[in-house]
Each structure stands twice: as C-alpha cells, then as structure tokens.
TrEMBL record:
Residues 5-47, 76-119 form the SpoVT-AbrB domain. This is Transcriptional regulator MraZ. Gene3D superfamilies: Transcriptional regulator MraZ domain. It comes from Candidatus Kaiserbacteria bacterium RIFCSPHIGHO2_02_FULL_50_50. Forms oligomers.
Length: 142
C-alpha cells in the first residue's frame, strides 16, 4: 500500500526521486499522467491496466467519457525508474502541474500523487478544514 507524504526536489533534468519505501512496490516502470486538482498521478503498470480498462468499456457516444479518456490517456507516459530511484517527468506534465522546485509525493493507497509543494500546502489545508464534513458525507452514503 502506498501511503505517506514526502517532499523532494525536481532536478534540472525533470527527474524526481521516488521514496525508497515505495520503490519495490512501484516496480521498474510506472505510468505517470495528469491527475485531478492539478497534480500528477503515478500508477504501477498493473494498476494502470485497471485504470485504462475503464476507458475500453466506456460508451463512445458520451462526450464526458471521450473527454475524460483524452484527459487521462493523451498525456500518459510509461517511464522507467532509474537505478537511483528517479523518474523522468515529461515536459507536458511538468507544465500541467506547474512544478517549481519542490514537489510533494503523496501515497494514496494504490497510486502516488505528485504535487507542486505550494499547491499541495494550499490544497491540503482546505482538506484539513473540511475533513469532518467530508467524512460525514462519505459515511452517510455507505
């Protein structure tokens, strides 16, 4: 399970180090793509197969389905994890996520989210403020 929060610097070659605790679980290659709320999402190859399968079975006639498939798939890249545990963030994804120098890698069970540090701090502050209300909504649906 991918959990925890780690800060790392993105280097001049657009590489970011994956936390040592996650490297074995993530494997030698990962898929990185646009996430929601302005982050990037990193998937293991097995998890990416599950995510991309959702689009295989989606109705082509639905504009929302087509649009979200384009959003997720068109910028996706399979990248290797180098011997130092780093992955290359493609330029299009670095630009999308507005990365400056420091990024936060957040483990979210079956995926890793990569956030610009300032954006993560702002976003997580909002979550912390609303966590009780979110929990009530989730529990009431269960």
């Amino acid at each position: 399970m991918l959990i925890g929060e780690y800060s790392h610097t993105i280097d001049i070659k657009n590489r970011v180090s994956l936390p040592a605790k996650w490297r074995q679980e993530l494997g030698k290659s990962v898929v990185i793509t646009r996430g929601l709320e302005g982050c990037l999402t990193v998937y293991t190859l097995a998890e990416w197969e599950k995510v991309s399968a959702m689009f295989t079975n989606s109705p082509f006639a639905s504009a929302d389905e087509r649009g979200f498939a384009r959003y997720m798939l068109s910028a996706a890249a399979e990248v290797d994890v180098d011997s130092a545990g780093r992955v290359l963030v493609p330029d299009v994804l670095k630009t999308f996520a507005k990365f400056d120098k420091t990024v936060v890698l957040a483990g979210v069970h079956n995926r890793v989210e990569v956030w610009d540090e300032a954006h993560w701090r702002d976003y997580s502050a909002g979550i912390e403020t609303n966590a009780a209300e979110m929990a009530e909504k989730i529990v009431s649906r269960a």
